[in-house]
Amino acid sequence: MTLRSVSSCRSSPEAPGSDMPWEQLYCILRPRVAHWVHSSSLSSWSRQRDEIVTDIVQETMMRLLNYARRAERGEVAPIDSLEHLGLIVAYNCFRDLWRRDHCLIYIIQRDYAAQRASSLPSGPDQFEAVLDHVFEEWLFSFLAHEIVNFPEKQRTALLMDLANRMHFGPQPTALQRAFLEVGIDLRQYQRELPADPAERGRHASLLSLAYKRLARIVQGQLRAQAA
Question: Can you tell which superkingdom this protein's organism belongs to (predicted)?
Answer without folding.
Answer: Bacteria
